[in-house]
DNA helicase IV (Stackebrandtia endophytica), 652 residues
Amino acid sequence: MTETTIDAALRVEQDHLVASRIALGHMRERTAAITDNAGDELTAWALGRAKALRLADLADRPDTPLFFGRLHLTDEDFHIGRRHVVDQSGNPMVLDWRAPISRSFYQASVRQPMGVTRRRRFGFDGGALTSFEDEKLDAGDELGESSEILAREIERPRVGPMRDIVATIQPEQDDLVRSPLDTTICVQGAPGTGKTAVGLHRAAYLLYAYREQLRRNGVLIVGPNESFMSYIQNVLPTLGEVDVTQLTVHDLVDTIPIRGVDAPETAALKHDERMARVLHRAVWSHVTMPAESLMIPDGGWRWRLGEEYLHRAVAEAQAENLPYLTGRERVRAQIVAGVRRQAEIRSGESPSEAWGRKLGRSKLVTTFLDRYWPALNPKKLVTRLFTDDVFRAEACEGVLTDEERDLLASRTRQPRLTEADTFLIDEVEGLLERPTGFGHVVIDEAQDLSAMQCRAIARRSQHGSLTVLGDLAQGTSPWTATAWQHSLSHLGKPDGEVVALTTGFRVPADVIALANRLLPQLNVDVPAARSLRTDGLLELLPTTDLLGTIAETVASARRFEGSIAVIAADSEADMLREHLGEDDRLSIVAAGQAKGLEFDHVIVAEPSDIVAAETFGLRRLYVVLTRAVSRLSVVHAKPLPEPLTDNASTVS
Ligand SMILES: Nc1ncnc2c1ncn2[C@@H]1O[C@H](COP(=O)(O)OP(=O)(O)OP(=O)(O)O)[C@@H](O)[C@H]1O
């Protein structure tokens, strides 16, 4: 195309963008005009909520493109964007990226054109359309990873929270994003390969493709900590999905105040899967077989339920594998049924439902249940496990060693409950009653979850599916996963498929090459990342004045656009924060908090201290080094950790 035909074509596209924004405005007006005070209060509330969600979905964000691509099929063409936009007569102006036709925008290739003759990608500056790039697939013309628009997108300076990648999702990512609702997938992705992005886009895709199903039970996103949650929290709303629950794994079970801290070996034990067996036994040890008959006065009658009948009622409820409290109710119902049958035989008619309810709730029946199948309080039960030696010994017998059992013992009658205890209490709650489950759960940084944390998630996704995201090489928790199969079993989805992502979109090639030197020593079997990015800067800066060199490096980092982070061992972060200050562009980040985040320029302070600070220190360093989007400076006064010393010289 000549310069002028390109300009003319661009103008036509810009006009289409303006027209689409106007059409979206009309759609919003039509939605706003829908009356929501029809019917009873509940219907009006439901309508009002649906309308508010729809309006939020139709919000125009002037700083993001309404469409980012155009597909020419043999005899029709479509613009592809964030949501459906139709004109006043209902003709499509923009197709939602999640619609079935849009799939070919992400997947079509010269080898498999999927009916696409030409694919156009648009370049944007904020919400303004500035360029386009064509691939004439029918003429054998395909850009793939060499697309300049893709390069610009992954090289752009990062500011603020995470953005969506909807315009440039790559084919292998798209396969994961569009996998069906009934499939659980586990993505083992090297740093910066887009795991988090894929998980969030999958959530948005499922909410579109299975809206009715998911409206009932919803979608949950689980992440490791608050800073990570706030980093990702805007992605789904910009994709039009506002009705999603986003929680840290701690908030998922957060019902009691945490006042204590466990010794490391006690915490590790409490997070071990064997605790599930201990708790199961502790709960069910409360059920005993009735050793008496029950006389029930009812008006002028006295009904008798024999020991054998009651025995059978308890045994059958126990055999049914129901949640504990449902089992208790089952026995109550059997008692009522037994009396009802006698009353029917005696009088020839069946007593009313209200009679049955009253009888079931009577003091006599409840006292009987309290003796043989008592109601339980999860917090009290867990506390008793720590404080009652006999109870603990019985629950742990044959499951834990004596030393392990003793680790659970509390020295006080009122032990201060710890973070690990919240998962034990949640496990007990799950044994008593099934929690309401989500239709789909996305779990990020899943390699760090313990067996008991996985089980807490499993309880909330029993009838739903999962997207499990993580990287075994970045596992740093004391109970970090060593194989995805274990995590998937604890998550209740042993058949989930494990898929690897290895193309890196964040970390420049030189930086990933440095980080990859650590991989052989991380004791995990994962494929290394290859970077799509050949730009970037890596410098190793030995110094005798650590603080001075860090301050100088920060000053020179400010010459470039984008975010800067100084990442240091947790114990040093406060001191550095005091020394360097923080502002819009500069963050001082404790190594323990860096997971999942990214910054244009990362300055790593004294890597050997980061390694020395914890058991999985080398993995922590691997996480820290791979946070860099464009530039990485490693400042050190002590020798570098051994794997980094090979050929270590200033590289740029
Ligand atoms: N297809 C893509 N197009 C453009 N940018 C992408 C694409 N995929 C990923 N990215 C960008 O790459 C960066 C890394 O993505 P993301 O954080 O999802 O990776 P990750 O695998 O979760 O990384 P880590 O495990 O290191 O935390 C983000 O800035 C993301 O926007």
Summary: The two ends are 38 Å apart (CA to CA).
